[in-house]
Design brief:
Blueprint: H1 5-12, H2 14-33, E1 36-37, E2 43-44, H3 48-58, H4 73-101, H5 104-120, E3 126-130, H6 134-145, E4 149-154, H7 157-166, E5 174-176, H8 182-187, E6 195-200, H9 205-218, E7 223-227, H10 231-239, E8 244-246, H11 248-261, H12 263-272, E9 290-293, H13 297-308, E10 313-317, H14 328-333, E11 334-336, H15 342-347, E12 355-358, H16 363-376, E13 381-385, H17 392-396, E14 402-404, H18 406-419, H19 421-430, H20 435-448, E15 454-459, H21 466-473, E16 496-503, E17 506-509, E18 522-527, H22 529-540, H23 542-550
Parallel strand pairs: 3-4, 3-6, 4-5, 6-7, 7-8, 9-10, 9-12, 10-11, 12-13, 13-14
Antiparallel strand pairs: 1-2, 15-18, 16-17, 16-18
Helix pairs in contact: 2-3, 2-4, 6-18, 11-12, 11-13, 11-18, 12-20, 18-19, 22-23
Length: 562
């Protein structure tokens, strides 16, 4: 009760209500006690109703006249006093009411009540997102594109105003809270059946761990997407059954490793994340000397991957205090100093280096390092870490070979894992393959579909694929080739490539057309727009499904016809 708007109104307006009540009581009591004169000149006492009626309109300075009889002078003197008394009471009360509507706690409770109504009426599947920034804004947009609603909890009121100004459609309910407690998460709808996931991408590992614990305590079935910055913390989160644990620096180092060993796998990953088409030029990461500038979390991950591939490197770090944290292998390769200093770069062999990676946490420093390196070695391959997505224009115009943005990686990884889980599983499966396997798949996708195929994933169930479900329920047999049939002509094939089949705990990569379809199968397809529309019709429309099964048009029988 103490945390709702009604209690605040009762608490704040109690004294003004009493002031009005007392002033009215005094004014009415005076009119009752003072003698008046009726139309015949006889004395009379005003009734309680007449006194209340007169004071009611006189106190608001409306003034309909003296009633029920013309007042005597003592009555008029009392009415004059009552007018000033009650008007002052009203002024005080109105001032208190205006003050109430400016009270931060009251306004906060009004917003909270509005938020609770929105959550109560939210029947679509939704994701709870903690904090609003550039990264979570992109997650909101991508989630909406896939049919997911989002709910935001934010502790910075300025960011809440920015979210409201975005004017998302449908509306994104937002709750202001200074902390992320169990009560707050429960208020945001974490216990609701249609709440599918919670996203916590804070830099504070301890906070992410705490939120994971609370979320699993509230709802064991909910998916958790959480950021981790250390290997130890990643293991702790996985022990708590966090489904999506994202370390952007590990992902970047893995991407560099893919680009070194299997550029076509790197190309497939970029396509699945929607960053590039399949016909882009394969990334160039030549063998030779690499210079890594900035030996923080990302620099350390890159060092590990380059070391695994027996690639020579030099590490440059400005902070000499990191010296005591380094291994012997790291110390033998590291130089302390300013990475955009020409003399330092020349001393460590910039002219003989094949690539330089500027991966500090400052975008201006990274661009400065690469500009200096290019002047000393125009042919050098440039790799950069982009920290702020707002600076995207600067990086694109700097003619850098490879740009890695941790924030974009967080967006792609989280949205893929939460709203397109099969494509995320597909990525996890293909990274175990070699470059030759990936090259064949890239060629097949470009030949059979186009350079930027669409991804389509669905489950064989009554809700999503009712026609296939009914057919299989009747013990009939269906094969994957069903999805390739054109509704324009059954003898023609659509542009479709099956990528993944998940049947319970088994995963089949690139299932063949002769593979049987079973109830409960989860299927990932690559296709074009025309094929996607046909597949949706086949799954849901009884007439189109009948056509692909029999090759004939299903007859429509109207009532009244024999």
């Amino acid at each position: 009760m103490r945390n709702n708007s009604l209690f605040i109104i009762l608490q704040k307006m109690r004294r003004p209500f009493l002031v009005i009540l007392i002033t009215y009581t005094i004014a009415i009591l005076g009119l009752i006690l003072i003698d008046g004169i009726d139309a015949n000149g006889n004395p009379y006492k005003m009734s309680i109703f007449d006194a209340f009626y007169f004071i009611s309109y006189t106190a608001t300075t409306i003034g309909f006249g003296e009633t029920p009889f013309t007042f005597s002078y003592p009555q008029r003197m009392w009415v004059t006093f009552s007018i000033y008394l009650t008007v002052l009471g009203w002024f005080y009360s109105i001032g208190s009411l205006i003050s109430l509507f400016q009270d931060k706690l009251f306004l906060q409770e009004i917003e909270k009540a509005k938020f609770l109504r929105q959550i109560k009426n939210l029947n679509e599947k939704f994701i709870v997102i903690l904090g609003y920034n550039q990264i979570t804004r992109k997650i909101i947009i991508k989630a909406m594109e896939q049919g997911f609603r989002t709910v935001v909890i934010e502790r910075d009121k300025m960011k809440i105003h920015n979210l409201i100004l975005e004017n998302f459609t449908p509306t994104v309910p937002v709750l202001y809270s200074e902390n992320y407690s169990i009560r707050v998460l429960e208020t945001a709808g974490l216990k609701k059946r249609n709440c599918k996931a919670i996203v916590s991408l804070f830099e504070d590992d301890a906070l992410n761990l705490k939120i994971t614990l609370m979320a699993k305590a509230l709802n064991k079935n909910i998916k958790i997407a959480v950021k981790s910055t250390t290997t130890n913390h990643t293991e702790n989160l996985k022990d708590l059954d966090a489904e999506v644990v994202v370390n952007p620096f590990s992902i970047i180092s893995s991407e560099i490793n893919l680009a070194l060993c299997s550029p076509n796998l790197f190309k497939l990953e970029k396509w699945i994340y929607g960053l590039d088409s399949l016909n882009i030029t394969s990334p160039i990461f030549p063998k030779g000397l690499y210079i890594v500038c900035g030996y923080g979390r990302m620099g350390r991950k890159i060092f590990e991957k380059l070391n695994e591939n027996d690639i020579g490197m030099k590490l440059v770090e400005i902070d000499k205090n990191k010296n005591h944290e380094l291994s012997k292998d790291e110390i033998s390769n590291i130089v302390f100093g300013n990475a955009d200093d020409k003399e330092l770069l020349l001393d460590i062999g910039i002219k003989d280096a094949v690539a330089i990676a500027a991966v500090t946490d400052d975008d201006t420093t990274n661009l400065s390092i690469l500009a200096t390196a290019k002047k000393l070695n125009p042919k050098i391959i440039t790799i950069v870490r982009e920290n702020d997505m707002v600076d995207d224009f600067l990086f694109k115009n700097a003619k850098i070979n490879h740009i890695f943005t941790p924030s974009k990686i967080l967006v792609n990884k989280v949205t893929n894992a939460l709203v397109m889980p099969l494509s995320d599983k597909f990525i996890k499966q293909i990274i175990k393959k070699d470059n030759e396997w990936a090259s064949k798949l890239v060629s097949r996708l470009i030949k059979d579909i186009n350079e930027k195929p669409l991804l389509m994933e669905f489950e064989i169930n009554e809700a999503l694929t009712p026609q296939i479900y009914k057919h299989l329920l009747a013990n009939e047999t269906l094969f994957f080739s069903l999805f390739s049939i054109s509704l324009y002509n059954k003898e023609l094939k659509n542009n479709v490539v099956p990528l993944l089949l998940q049947r319970e705990d088994d995963i089949i990569l690139l299932p063949e057309w002769k593979e049987e379809i079973k109830i409960g199968d989860k299927i990932l397809l690559a296709c074009d727009e025309h094929a996607k529309n046909d597949i949706e019709y086949i799954c849901q429309n009884v007439y189109e499904f009948y056509y692909v099964i029999t090759g004939k048009e299903k007859q429509i029988i109207f009532k009244g016809n024999k």
